[in-house]
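Quick one, T. Sequence first:
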Amino acid sequence: MPELIIIIVAFGAALWLVIFIATLPKGVSFSKYVRRIRVARRGALADARILSTSYESVWTGSHTLYEDHRDYSLVYEVCPSGEPPFRAKGIESMDSVQAETNRIKEGATVQVRFDASHGVVVLMRVPSETQMQRYNREEAERKSRERATEEELLRDGPKS
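Structure tokens:
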């Protein structure tokens, strides 16, 4: 019986690892992903200008149109204070609303964390709503306006 539990736990761990690796952004190995996490937590802060932006793949977090995510490939010119600027490539996974909020476009200046020795740059993201949250908010606002219009029409009904 204990052998069965060990086999089930090992199978579950292997399955989790396969799923995790399969969902990594295109072109990012497991070791690069771990390095990105370290830089995101402890890297030095700097302003950076986005020199180039493109997306390399599209994946969907669910079966709705509103959850499309893209792996944005960004070339930054990082300007650390007191040091010469350098260029590095970064990959960020986000949906179009998050990309808009975080100003993912050529020429934009953003805040990043970086590790110059490994050429790793991670965008300091601005919190934003997802596409689905935006859709739900806009839908609620539309329904609220419709109800207010209907109530106004009913209040101002025919005058005798």
